[in-house]
Structure to design on (756 residues):
């Protein structure tokens, strides 16, 4: 297998180094914005040089971002090359087009590393679906926020200083919004549920609340109830209706997810026969992510083709039947909050079970009005 | 795919019911000691009727026990039929012979459900090894003892009453020794490390201590140190030397394994690139176990053949370089225990790091001498 590698940053260098130890595949051309010694004479001047190279049968895309990754991967597929990517932004945004393009050109498109980093997640969903349909799934899909919440829980620290520490350690980006506001998790949940349920849904349909406004006080309040705060993704298909949310949750201390440390991820699915299956591993990082990219490549050499599911039915997210009680800390008690409050604590309330879409709309409106509400399902 | 099913008990009925919902395979003959309505006219009079049936291409063995399971599976392989089993006793005892026989007859032998029940364990070890060799593995491999330890930890109950409750709930056998003395875990660890490291070792080489003598006092002492007691399997290959133990361990409260509830299993492996990977699921039970049997069958229909590893190098377990501190509660303080004691608590001691084989030999001798010592690595 001869590979054209698009991107030679954190993940790209990892992929390159792992493949250098193998005899069944080689990276023969590399596209990179930055030249480095490891690339040597493999540097390609343009995507054309890679897609027109008849020796290259497979393209690995680890540049990140939707554009020009989409155009490059599309060009590769159109030229009859298999494509493997770790790029969740690309997969979440262009899932349908890329799979269709791969099918049209009779090649394979795989993206196991795009959700859960090192975790054998999408491929085990694919496996489970062969025997029992996955009915629900979810988990802790973002290592940065899990690192922040673990540190806040263990050390009683406040959000801003913990985020700063995470940035210094390289766990969080300079602009942390994709992690702390939830879109990174929303993307991974969208890919997961589309693969698991064999559907096409838009990620923007998933109600998403992040951790930007969590405080040491919230962590303390959760602890007093024997709970741990985590940012949780979840999705379910029941009687053909798909529901999904991304939101902070108060987990009881004895739940496995409550004990997932540092920057690890936990993802889970449930099926009728296999029951609950959880997977824990590094959700990011050079070698863990590159590892799963190379696993996809080995699958290709072993003749495993296609996407993770054969069915791609357009579908919508419908949360109208999902009700949960919420912890809400708000500087203002308005009419709505008063109407759903069941118990009142110092500076916060616990609501009766309310519709999740309704609560997410309320949180969003409050934040837009300058009231930094923090809410978490209980 | 036409299947001859050996055994129609808990797991066998599960396999039969899951396959009845499928169109790509059918159970056409059943061997069972007990006739039931679900078997109908498929009851086979003898193993000969199954292995001589040219319509049957695959045999599923879920009878349990080494004999006559070994003779039956051997006969099937010799007659050119693939074999799938969930029987850990069989795999642990006859690993080498069965794999050799399958290779000789150009058929497949798979046993994913034999370790971890529903968990995609052996197949993910196989997958990881394609990119980075598994370096170490372990976990909580017995749901019965995990149920007992969870109940003792949560309720402060004593061992005997909790065991009795587990027996009433069907989680523990009438003769619980395979679970509580450790041989069940030892078997699963032996299969796991043989597959992971591509070796042939005897299960009896693994030093094994169980939970028979754990008391509510031990649980209380562990809690006072912020620890939780679990029965833990672990194995490592380092510089070509394989070490392995099965023993109770004091886990810190924030370890993921410490929070595995009820009768769930957690198994983990670690590789250089993929780092730590954990899998949590039901380790036993009708449908969870049957589920993984059917997954093996689907793999066969998709042309995945062979065992989980190509290498079968005879090897020994060597713990001479493994040292750990131990919690030891003993009615007697003898010279040896005094010589390794680092700190003393009420009725127990914590030792300095001692060689694990040495400590296991000491525990065994004490118990044989009528002193029911409980020891756990700390």
């Amino acid at each position: 297998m001869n590979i054209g590698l698009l991107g030679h940053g954190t993940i790209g260098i990892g992929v390159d180094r792992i493949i250098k130890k193998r005899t069944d595949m080689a990276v023969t051309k590399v596209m990179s914005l930055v030249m480095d010694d490891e690339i040597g004479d493999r540097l390609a001047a343009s995507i054309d040089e890679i897609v027109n190279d008849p020796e290259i049968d497979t393209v690995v895309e680890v540049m990140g971002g939707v554009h020009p990754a989409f155009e490059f991967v599309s060009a590769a597929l159109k030229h009859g090359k298999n494509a493997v990517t770790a790029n969740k932004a690309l997969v979440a945004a262009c899932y349908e087009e890329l799979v269709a393009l791969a099918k049209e050109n009779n090649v394979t498109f795989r993206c196991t590393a795009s959700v859960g980093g090192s975790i054998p997640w999408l491929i085990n969903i694919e496996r489970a679906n062969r025997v029992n349909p996955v009915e629900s799934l979810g988990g802790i899909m973002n290592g940065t926020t899990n690192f922040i919440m673990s540190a806040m829980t263990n050390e009683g620290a406040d959000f801003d200083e913990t985020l700063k520490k995470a940035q210094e350690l390289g766990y969080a980006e300079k602009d942390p919004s994709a992690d702390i506001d939830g879109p990174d998790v929303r993307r991974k949940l969208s890919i997961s549920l589309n693969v698991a349920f064999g559907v096409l849904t838009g990620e923007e349909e998933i109600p998403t609340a992040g951790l930007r406004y969590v405080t040491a006080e919230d962590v303390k309040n959760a602890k007093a109830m024997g709970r741990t705060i985590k940012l949780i993704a979840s999705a379910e298909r029941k009687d053909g209706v798909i529901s999904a949310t991304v939101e902070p949750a108060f987990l009881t201390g004895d739940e496995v997810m409550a004990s997932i440390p540092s920057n690890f991820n936990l993802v889970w699915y449930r099926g009728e026969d296999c029951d609950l299956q959880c997977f824990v591993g590094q959700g990011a990082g050079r070698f863990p992510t590159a590892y799963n990219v190379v696993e996809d490549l080995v699958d290709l050499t072993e003749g495993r083709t296609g996407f993770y599911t054969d069915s791609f039915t357009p579908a919508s997210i419908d949360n109208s039947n999902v009700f949960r009680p919420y912890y809400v800390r708000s500087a203002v008690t308005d009419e709505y909050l008063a109407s759903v409050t069941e118990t009142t604590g110092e500076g916060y309330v616990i609501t009766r079970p309310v519709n999740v879409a309704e609560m997410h709309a309320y949180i969003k409106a409050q934040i837009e009005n300058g009231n930094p509400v923090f809410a978490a399902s209980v």
